[in-house]
Write a structure and sequence with these properties.
Layout: H1 2-26, E1 28-31, E2 37-41, E3 52-56, H2 74-78, E4 83-88, H3 97-112, H4 114-117, E5 124-129, H5 131-142, E6 151-155, H6 168-175, H7 181-186, E7 200-205, H8 214-225, E8 230-235, H9 251-264
Parallel strand pairs: 3-4, 3-5, 5-6, 6-7, 7-8
Antiparallel strand pairs: 1-2, 2-4
Length: about 260
């Protein structure tokens, strides 16, 4: 029995390694005008119509979780017909304009090269995790029509910069510890939902102790108030930062829930 388990684990590990190698060697890396890097896996080459998604990893605006909230998602989206890109945005170090600049440039580049990378330029979404969810939702509510993503996916996102809701680390690294109330409101994305905010999928754990789940709930409530398409999944447990981790108790359900939404959005 132990040998069977051992060889099964070896097979699984081999499949993962091969998959990572295939993805890694297929990725195109493009430096954006201000220095951020976009890691792109083009859509499958077939006769189907494809969309694209830009991943924004989290890390409290202090670092970026590029595997669990980036590369490991590439096979999921690619196998479902998407072009997928990970935005390695520049860290703000209290300059709040830096991540937004990089996000805008990423969306613009994806639309410009849609024909080359095999997807519809009018079906470009963003997926953000934690602080990356703040960047993604900022793009969804605070940019002009030509740049605004066509859909959004937010996993345990930082949404608000108001002190009663904000994740302190993300707040301080983006805006600075002594940010004005006016600046905090500008970057509190639940305050800027409009009738143009794109369809949104939100997933969060009820027991998230790092980023208050009320961030997600407030955004969901505002989307409903503006009659915008939105779906919120609150998983009973799992904490924060589960991304693509198979150890997340609801990993398979989460993938199924997301796939259903992608198919029916």
């Amino acid at each position: 029995m132990k040998k069977v388990i051992f060889y099964t684990l070896i097979v699984i590990l081999t499949i993962i390694i091969v998959g990572v190698i295939v993805v890694e060697t297929s990725i195109i890396r493009v430096q954006l005008p201000h220095g951020a890097v976009l890691h792109v896996l083009p859509a499958p080459r077939d006769d189907h119509k494809h969309g694209a998604v830009i991943l924004c990893p989290g890390g409290g605006y202090r670092y970026q979780e590029k595997w669990n909230e980036g590369y490991l998602w590439f096979p999921f989206f690619h196998s479902r017909g998407f072009a997928v890109a990970m935005l390695e945005y520049r860290l703000p170090n209290h300059n709040h304009q830096i991540p937004m600049t990089d996000g805008i440039e990423a969306v613009q580049l994806m639309r410009t090269r849609a024909g080359e990378w095999g997807f519809d330029k009018n079906d470009v979404g963003v997926m953000g995790f934690s602080a990356g969810g703040h960047l993604a939702s900022s793009l969804m509510v605070n940019v002009r029509d030509s740049v605004r993503p066509d859909f959004g996916i937010l996993f345990y996102p930082v949404i608000s910069m108001r002190k009663e809701l904000a994740h302190k680390g993300s707040h301080d690294f983006l805006l600075g510890e002594n940010a004005s109330e006016q600046l905090e409101k500008i970057y509190s994305n639940e305050l800027h939902v409009t009738d143009q905010t794109p369809p949104t999928y939100i997933a969060v754990s009820k027991d998230d102790e790092k980023v208050n789940p009320q961030n997600s709930i407030r955004f969901y409530d505002e989307m409903n108030a503006k009659r915008r398409p939105v779906m919120l999944h609150v998983y009973p447990s799992g904490g924060h930062g589960w991304g693509y981790k198979s150890s997340f108790p609801y990993h398979k359900q989460m993938l199924s829930d997301l796939e259903n939404w992608l198919c029916n959005r």
